[in-house]
Amino acid sequence: MPFIKYTILAIIIVLSIYALMPPSNGAGQAHLGSDPNRNKDKPASVKYVIRFNPGPLYLPGVIPENSKKPIEGIQKVADEFEKLYPDTRVEFLGVPGDVREWLVTQLSSGRAPDVIQINVEDVWQDIQKDWYVPLDEYLDAPNPFVEAGEPGSKQWWDMFKYPIPTRGTMAPNDKMYCIVLDMIETGIFYNKDVFRRLDLSEPKDWLEFLQIQKTLKQNGYIPLLVDRQALSDWGVDLTFDQMYGELRDLLDLDYDPNRGEYLHGYLDWDELIFLHRKGFFSKNDPRWRELWRVLKDWRQFMSQDLNAIGTDFVRAFMTQEGAMYWGHSMTTNRLLADKNLGFEWGIFYLPPIPQSYSRFARGKDQVVIGGSAMQYSVTNSAYSDTHDPKTSERLKRVMAFLQFLTLPKNCDAVVNEQIALLPNIKGVEPHKELLPFHEFLQRHYAMTKWFYTFDLQFDEVLERQLELYLNGGMSEDDFLDWMEKNLDNASKRIISRKELDVERFEKVWRERAEMRKKFKELPSVAN
After folding, report:
1. Can you tell me whether residue 263 is helix, strand or coil?
2. What is the pLDDT of residues 301-341, one digit of tens each?
3. Whole-number Å distance between alpha carbons of 54 and 117
4. Parallel, antiparallel, or unpaired: how do β-strands 345-348 and 88-92 relate?
5. Residues 6+ apart with CB under 8 A from 182
6. What is the pLDDT of residues 350-407, one digit of tens each?
7. Which of 30, 80, 222, 326 would bridge 226 by S-S if both were Cys, CB 3.0 to 4.6 A apart?
């Protein structure tokens, strides 16, 4: 089950850290999160203090690059909520950059925030520990703050503008563990002035895309600026979909109609493990081998150093060292903030790979790789008053604030305070500069998320070995051996941790014997 990790948390944290400057005009001492003095002398009537981590973009006190004014939208929403509930205070706090390691420590000791912005894939790793509250019963019920006849008056679900990617955050156990306030998507930012000067236009397919990059390189530009994590994440998943897209119905062994057509064909960890045992995603799988060949061929047009540490790829694009940059919607804010940019820029999505370039491709549009951005999960701290979610009054108050936060006027105040993400609540329009990303989000979702589906160990090996392979540090066969070993080891760890029964797919696989005959070049063991 997806999401954006580009879904999203690690990238969000790395690429959305703003300058932390003190407020101007004598506003007082700078602080991040709620005013530390605010709750020191709270009246005795205050029964609940909700500890809420809103994520790095919305944390009160952060100053965006295009503003001298600290972020305050979500604090204003909390102030209004507290007028409705005088017995409640909402306290906003930040978390360390390595949120998962920190959160595991906090959850294990019962000190976690009540609500945490965390990529939902990280939540899935621990759902068997009952650290997080399933939110299905709340989403299926009316939002009590919504007037009759308005979206949300029958089901909270009805308020979300992008229902399919929102429901796409459903965990492999078919439960929802997050509220999605906004959306994020990737795109290729390009220098329109350079394109005009070289008589280039937005590519219609992969061959045109490669030719454009060749022309840019011949004219002294870095054709494409992209870091290794984005390539290991977005690059692998999009190319995988182009290579395996025609097998979508064959490989999706556990399709749940509740996920919607958007996630038709999405491969969860247990399906990937089973299919790997059938020879897929190995050196004997021609499509798997072709996936890495495509990325290797593309590598020649990227920046020499793919390691983002110490390298500001956005700055390299802004100084016109590079003509294109593969980034996400939050990059828009930074480009708009630079009044001395000196060139016009545009955005297009990665073009499809035609069969004339790869025999496994079908020229279908590239799929969505972004989706849910700020994903708010409720921890077991929210019901610390009774230690039972069914009887907790504190949990009711925590959920009430989340429901209040998703009212259109409140979502607008929070998400549209800056030009970064797209509001996920009906009736709240995105900034016009983000409309291209709105169009991209209408596409089908990727078939899987190789990066972050298994565990950090798998991700680290993938990222490190892929960079080594792309830079000519190892042969294709050696790289495929590494990947096979990495997938084997990750499979063992996940099966042990999650007690997965992957053999339950054997019956479905046998029933699809006739379907497999329709496709060429499947791994021999698959038949």
Report:
1. helix
2. 999 888 766 678 999 999 999 999 999 999 999 999 888 99
3. 6
4. unpaired
5. 373, 374, 411, 415, 421, 422, 423, 424
6. 999 999 999 999 999 999 888 899 999 999 999 999 999 999 999 999 999 999 999 9
7. 326
